[in-house]
Amino acid sequence: MLGPVILAASRSDRMRRLISAAPVTKQVVDRFIPGESVADIVPVIEELTGRGLELTMDVVGEDITTPEQAAAARDAYLALIDRLRELGLGERVEMSVKLSMFGQALDRGHELALENVRPVVEAAAAIGTTVTLDAEDHTTLDSMFAIHEELRKDFPQTGCVIQAYLFRTEADARRLAAAGSRVRLVKGAYKEPAEVAYQRKHEIDKAYVRILKTLMEGAGYPMVGSHDPRLISIAQELARRAGRKPDEYEFQMLYGIRGDEHLRLAAEGHRMRVYTAYGTDWYGYFMRRLAEKPANLSFFLRSMVSKG
């Protein structure tokens, strides 16, 4: 399986230098990360929302080593929210944040991450939108869920992400599938040991369906994070069986992957949200996109060969 190899490469400084220096890399990265600054991303936001899509925005960058870098990440999100306010697009665009960017791995990281993310959640609420806390590797999840619970006391619309490949997630889903909750279900994109996570695709897919059934039958708002046509069809059937209307759940897919499907689902009346990342520290995000789907890796390798 190439996925674990690519994920290992995502943590290699040598591979980072090698891939960053490849002439074709920027062209391919642009497929998944359409800009480095707020100014770059505004035309993308306007185009996608103009086509009936909603967005969740991710300022990429997880290698935070100082409190100052964590504060800079917070400020980057605040600048984005300020621009969304000016555009009048607050209700169409939410934010996705990784707490590692807000200092979660530093000394007193839990408290620091909460201190940094709270102003972002407050600013998002002020323009009519919200924030979803992304899931990272399994060692960070207890902290993420605790911060999620704390934020929801004042901002109950704050969402979180759960990962189907982790053994713990079925229990997490039962706990989270309550009235007012917003939960994005994804398969998972980190290299996790066999002690805590399913390793085989068919096991992950089965877990995904079980967990999605729990969310659809619960009282919260499920967000279906998948590009898999079979899982999308299953999600629609589970929503129908649960008596959910089209505005009582949504689909989420990554920018740059299956764009035609984004538009098809939106045209059918589904809420379709595009996960759109931007920023200069793109390497870790890019490598996980390659690891998630063989077609992404094939696209990258074909591009390197054709430009070589």
Summed up, what is this model?
The chain is α/β, with parallel strands linked by helices and 308 residues long.
Count of helix runs: 13
Strand order of the largest sheet: 1-2-3-4-5-6-7-8
Strand/helix succession: HHHHEHEHEHEHEHEHEHEHH
Overall morphology: globular
Proportion in β-strands: 5-15%
Helix content: 40-55%
Radius of gyration: 18 Å
Largest sheet: 8 strands, parallel, barrel
User: What's the end-to-end separation, in Å?
Assistant: 26 Å
Structural class: alpha/beta
| Unreliable sequence segments | 303-308
- Secondary structure: number of strands: 8
Mean pLDDT: 88
What report would you give on this structure?
Helix 1 packs antiparallel against helix 12, helix 5 runs parallel beside helix 6 and helix 6 (109-126) packs parallel to helix 7 (141-154). An 8-stranded parallel barrel has the order 1-2-3-4-5-6-7-8, surrounded by 7 helices. The protein is globular, with a radius of gyration of 18 Å. The protein has 308 residues and is an alpha/beta fold. Helix content is 53%, strand content 13%.
